[in-house]
Structures are given as structure tokens and as C-alpha cells.
Design goal:
Elements: E1 3-9, E2 14-20, H1 26-41, H2 52-55, H3 57-64
Antiparallel strand pairs: 1-2
Length: about 60
């Protein structure tokens, strides 16, 4: 693990730092999000991401559509 995924709840101003690899697939990011956020706080109403489309080249096609 050489980097962190930071998830911030803007409503209650709460942040969760999740250790991960610098390069990982969208599936791994989704699993980490579920294991560390949805499991404890429930499914969010909206998600704002600035990293997902830059994480892997194969994710760019999905994000650009």
C-alpha cells in the first residue's frame, strides 16, 4: 500500500483515509468504497470524484461516455 484514497462526507465534515495501491482498477476502488464507507454509513445520495477517471486507462472509456 503506497497511497491513500480519501473519502469526505461534506454534510458532517467527516473524512476516511483508505490505504491502497497507486494504480488500481475501478472495481478495486468500488470494493474499497463499499468496505470502508457503505458498510458503515450507507449508500450516499451523490458521489463527486476527481480521481476515478484518471486511475486506469480502461476506465477512461467508461467515464467519457
Amino acid at each position: 500500500m503506497n497511497t491513500f484514497m480519501v473519502v469526505v462526507d461534506r454534510l458532517i465534515k467527516y473524512a476516511v483515509f483508505v490505504a491502497t495501491l497507486a494504480v488500481c482498477t475501478a472495481k478495486v476502488i468500488a470494493e474499497l468504497f463499499y468496505q470502508n464507507m457503505v458498510k458503515y454509513f450507507g449508500v450516499p445520495f451523490d458521489i463527486v470524484s476527481d480521481v476515478l477517471c484518471n486511475s486506469r486507462a480502461d476506465s477512461r472509456q467508461h467515464c467519457s461516455t
